[in-house]
Amino acid sequence: RARYEAIHDNADFALLPQIQRDAIDGILAQLAPANHLTGVGLDAIDVQVAGHEGLIPAALAALAARQAALRARYEAI
User: Fold this and answer.
1) 52 neighbors 44 (Cβ within 8 angstroms)
2) Which of 24, 58, 67, 71 is most buried, taking the most CB atoms under 10 A from its CB?
3) Which of 19-55 are b and which e, b meaning 16 or more Cβ less than 10 Å from the residue's Cβ?
4) Would you list the domain boundaries of the chain?
5) pLDDT in tens, 7-62
């Protein structure tokens, strides 16, 4: 809501042609759901982010193991 008001209530916004103001209003309306996240919604996002962050060390370890295996194969040749 604050983002909408900051743009929509700006004096320069009023100077734009109506068609441009309508286009901007349409884009802001599409963004509106993201501006109204509740604590529950934000908590769900935090859980997802934490879960994905937990995958990063495992992925890096798997990559290092794969690299070591390829190096060993190469050296064996």
Assistant:
1) no
2) 24
3) eeeeeeeeeeeeeeeeeeeeeeeeeeeeeeeeeeeee
4) 1-36, 38-77
5) 777 788 788 888 888 888 888 777 766 656 666 766 777 777 777 777 777 888 88
